[in-house]
Design a protein that fits this description.
Largest sheet: none
Strand content: under 5%
Number of strands: 0
Number of helices: 16
Helix content: over 70%
């Protein structure tokens, strides 16, 4: 496998984690999209749009629960996994910090729901709170940092398959939107609880109350990564909210389908970066100059993979209304507009997360993400108001291209400093 030549002795662990993360993305993205045709037919276009909008609010809440620990936690664990006492300390600090954030965000969303949600949709929004609790308990960052993702994937598969089966058997009418959300929350809480229990047993860890100073330390470690990840996810998730505010529920449903299909395609290549993240986190600590060249070589190969993926996605786009139903015929045009995101979004993620974050340029990366994201949201609001979903697609592509340019500029700056 020539693609892996720059990894030298880390090929085996990369391959193991790549396939585990690929399986995880199939569970997280392919399973939900398999349910979309069923849900749109049972709930109706408007009913599914309302459900998708409530789920977007829950996803925004998850940004604060995760707080960048999906990256900073992985970094800490990968660097200290051979030191049992330090590992126990880091595990407790991150776990209790996430649980605390989960409870705070849940209370905040309860408060906001009473003011922002329509009275008829209030309980739908409240039913999504279990998703926050489930994610706060889930130590996915521990499994990835220890490079033992196969166990996490197995546990997650159980909870998500259960969710899929229950939805197919129990959801019968357009009035069952809240039931779908409740089942989603229950599956997330089940997955989080089982993953936490298995992690404690397998890695010989205990749930201990950490010191306040230790939790503050983890918050500081994850702060810049939090700003980066929340910036990336915020403008993507908030786009759905803008579409709902400027347009209507059917438009939300159409955009949501396009977004889900796009995420499924991105999920096929994203495991490459996620599997490489703990590897380069260690390598950049030892030999920055040599490993930077390996990073560039892998980046060029990754760009080729993204380009091929984009071409296949464009040629396959007419299949969307065939899979989801004739009412989604208009998704083909919007999806084709969004296809450049596969290339530019993928390369931004590669350069920013795998490169700039591991090279200590988190602050620069987070500032670029927020600048591009806020610019994109402004363009989104203006263009969506003028030309509808076409404007939404154009603004998202513009945002990704802008972020890619800024990240590439920072990487070239680092390269020049390295060769001086």
């Amino acid at each position: 496998m020539k693609f892996l030549n720059p990894l030298a002795g880390d090929k085996k662990s990369f391959v193991y984690n790549f396939f585990s993360l690929t399986a995880l993305n199939v569970i997280n993205y392919v399973f939900p999209i398999v349910m979309v045709p069923f849900l749109t037919r049972v709930l109706g276009l408007s009913g599914y749009g309302t459900y998708a909008l409530a789920l977007s609010w829950a996803n925004i809440g998850l940004l604060f629960v995760r707080f960048g620990f999906d990256f900073s936690g992985v970094q800490e664990i990968s660097r200290w996994r051979d030191e049992p006492q330090t590992l126990q300390k880091i595990f407790s600090e991150i776990l209790f910090t996430r649980i605390s954030f989960g409870l705070l965000v849940a209370f905040g969303m309860i408060f906001l729901s009473y003011f922002l949600a329509r009275p008829t949709d209030l309980y739908l929004y409240l039913a999504s709170l279990g998703i926050l609790i489930g994610v706060s308990l889930n130590p996915n960052w521990l499994f990835q940092g220890m490079e033992k993702m196969q166990f996490y994937v197995a546990i997650t598969s159980i909870s998500r398959i259960l969710f899929l089966v229950l939805v197919l058997f129990l959801v019968k009418s357009p009035r069952d939107s809240m039931l779908v959300m409740a089942l989603n929350s229950l599956s997330m809480m089940l997955g989080g609880t089982l993953s936490l229990g298995f992690a404690c047993r397998y890695f010989n860890l205990q749930i201990r109350l950490p010191s306040y100073s230790g939790m503050i330390k983890q918050i500081k470690n994850g702060w810049q990564l939090f700003l980066s990840t929340i910036g990336i996810s915020f403008y993507r998730d908030f786009t759905t909210v803008i579409v709902g505010a400027v347009l209507d529920a059917p438009a939300v449903a159409i955009f949501s389908v396009c977004e889900k299909v796009l995420k499924v395609i991105q999920s096929l290549t994203a495991p490459i970066i996620n599997a490489l993240f703990p590897v380069f986190s260690r390598k950049f600590q030892l030999q920055k100059a040599e490993e930077f060249q390996n990073f560039i070589i892998l980046g060029k190969k990754y760009a080729l993979i993204l380009t091929i993926t984009s071409i296949v996605a464009f040629l396959s786009s007419p299949l969307i209304p065939f899979v989801f139903g004739p009412e989604y015929y208009n998704t083909v045009q919007l999806f084709r507009i969004l296809i450049p995101i596969i290339i530019f979004g993928g390369l931004s993620y590669y350069i920013g997360v795998l490169g700039l974050v591991n090279l200590g340029r988190q602050k620069s990366f987070s500032s670029y993400v927020w600048f591009a994201g806020l610019t994109g949201l402004l363009c989104n609001y203006v263009l969506s108001s003028i030309v509808g979903l076409t404007g939404t697609g154009i603004s998202l592509v513009f945002c990704e291209v802008l972020l890619f340019g800024l990240c590439l500029k920072e990487l070239n700056k680092y390269s020049r400093q390295l060769t001086k």
